[in-house]
C-alpha cells in the first residue's frame, strides 16, 4: 500500500502483467483449474501462477474449493468482488481494440457484447459470470 | 508482445504498478513536468519515471515538448490515445471505491464525475483533458 489513492489501491492488487490475464481466463475461457491457466498462450510460469492465485484468494477475488468430480483437484471461482473487475477488463480491451493493429479472436469473446452496447453488454456478461461462479456447482 | 489478445495488448503497455499513476497525474492533478511526477506520494523513483515516460512517448500516449516558459524544461501532454485511457483509470477507481476500506481525497477528484453518471462523466472529463492537452499551450 503506497497511498490511499483509489487508482493505487487497484494497481497494488492487479497492477502487473499477469493477474488480469488469470481473471480473463476465469471470465471468458471457462478455465477453472490450475493446469488450465498454465496452458494459456502467454505462457505464465507455475511459480507466478501459484503466487497470483494465492494473492487473489487472499484478496477474496477468487475462491478455491475441492472439486467434487476430481477429488485431487481444486476448482477456482470468481467472487462478486472478482466479477466486479469486468469493467476494468472490458475498458482495457476496448482501448486495445481501438489502437492495436492486430488482435486475435479473443477480441470478440472479451469485448463483443460491450462493443454493441457498453452498459447492456456488462450486464449480460455479469449475469453469465454470476451464474457460472457464484452458485454451488463444479 | 506475448499474444495478440486485446487484454494482453494493453497490459504489455501499462500493466505495471507505475504507468497508470503517471497517467493519473497528467489527467487529474495537472502535472506536466518531470519534477512534478517525482513528487507524487507513491514515491516513484527517477529511473522508473524516466523509463515509463520514454515508453509512453514511444507508444504515442504522451508527447514531450520544450516548454515555452521554462526553456530548459520539457512539458508532457497526453495525446488522444492517452486521453482514451480515461475509462481504464475510472473503472479501476470505481472498483476500489467499492472495495477499499479507506481512500484519500483522490477519490472525488478521479471518480467524482463518473460516479454521478458514468457516460456523461467520461464525456465531461474527456473534453476537459482535450482542452488542456491537445491544444498548443504551455
Task: Give me some keywords for this one.
8 helices; Arc Repressor Mutant, subunit A; homodimer; 138 residues
What's the structural blueprint in terms of helices and strands?
The structure is a homodimer of 138-residue chains.
Chain A: H1 6-14, H2 19-28, H3 34-38, H4 46-58, E1 62-66, E2 74-78, H5 80-83, H6 86-99, H7 106-116, H8 118-133
Antiparallel strand pairs in A: 1-2
Helix pairs in contact in A: 6-7, 7-8
Short précis:
2 copies of one chain form a homodimer. Chain A has 138 residues and is mainly alpha-helical. Chain A has one domain: Orthogonal Bundle (Arc Repressor Mutant, subunit A).
Provide a descriptive summary of the structure in words:
2 copies of one chain form a homodimer. With 138 residues, the first copy, chain A, is mostly helical. Chain A has a single domain, classed as Arc Repressor Mutant, subunit A, CATH 1.10.10.10. Chain A contains 8 helices and 2 strands. Chain A has a two-stranded antiparallel ribbon. In chain A, a hairpin with a 7-residue loop joins strand 1 and strand 2. The radius of gyration of chain A is 15 Å and the shape is globular. The model of chain A has no long low-confidence stretch (mean pLDDT 95). At the A-B interface, helix 1, helix 2, helix 6 and helix 7 of A face helix 1, helix 2, helix 6 and helix 7 of B.
Amino acid at each position: 500500500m503506497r497511498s490511499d489513492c483509489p487508482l493505487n489501491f487497484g494497481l497494488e492488487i492487479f497492477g502487473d502483467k499477469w493477474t488480469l490475464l488469470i481473471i480473463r481466463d476465469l471470465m471468458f475461457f471457462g478455465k477453472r483449474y490450475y493446469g488450465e491457466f498454465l496452458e494459456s498462450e502467454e505462457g505464465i510460469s507455475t511459480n507466478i501462477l501459484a503466487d497470483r492465485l494465492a494473492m487473489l484468494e487472499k484478496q477474496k477475488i477468487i475462491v478455491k474449493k475441492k472439486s467434487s468430480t476430481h477429488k485431487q483437484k481444486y476448482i477456482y471461482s470468481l467472487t462478486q468482488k472478482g466479477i466486479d473487475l469486468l469493467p476494468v477488463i472490458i475498458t482495457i480491451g476496448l482501448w486495445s481494440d481501438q489502437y492495436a493493429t492486430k488482435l486475435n479472436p479473443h477480441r470478440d469473446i472479451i469485448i463483443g457484447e460491450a462493443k454493441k452496447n457498453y452498459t447492456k453488454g456488462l450486464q449480460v456478461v455479469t449475469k453469465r459470470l454470476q451464474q457460472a461462479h457464484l452458485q454451488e456447482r463444479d
